[in-house]
Amino acid sequence: MPRISTRALLFLSSYAPLFLILAMRGWRENRHLAVTLGIIALLSILALIIFLQYARKLQPSLMVIVSVKSRDGDVMSYIVTYLLPFLAIKLSDSMDIASLGLLLFVVGILYVNSNLIHTNPILSIMGYHLFEIEDENKKTTTLICKRSYVKTGSKIRVVSIGDYVLLEKA
Questions:
Q1: What's the Cα-to-Cα distance from 34 to each of 11, 49, 87, rounded to whole Å?
Q2: Burial of 143 (0-12, 13-18, 19+ CB in 10 A)
């Protein structure tokens, strides 16, 4: 399982689009906070790219897929939280900032502790797809891969990037 710091970075990258939206909406009200949010968004995306490059260098194992179910729709339920900036949050209002910060903190704790690193819209933007797969040992895991279709019975090379989360090594 990735360390908490890695999972926290992946959480931040999952919210990078939200941070960019907030930065754009708050540019006239609080430029310092808007720039900070933009920097956090860009650094977290960079951290995700570095993490994926590192994971691809790990020693893969071969597995046979017994069953497959697409999980790409999970990201859409995560996107609901992106509606927050359009609910009249003002970056010039300290109570709005504090309440949004508290909400993101709680969501972050849930995300990190639930090991939801695979539920990340940036992964979708980068062309990755999510599948729930079962291997020949009846172990169910989430597969992150560039393929849009994974066939039952196929043999794939994977690296583990978390508890029950695999990344296909191309």
A1: 19, 23, 17
A2: buried
Tokens of 60: 């893969």
Domain count, the chain: 1
Residue type, position 119, single letter: T
Contacts of 60 (CB under 8 A, 6+ apart): 157, 158, 159, 169
Place of tokens 């990078």: 16
Q: Which amino acid is at 156?
A: I
Domain of 102 in residue numbering reads as 4-168
pLDDT in tens, 10-57: 778 888 988 898 888 888 888 998 999 999 999 999 989 998 898 889
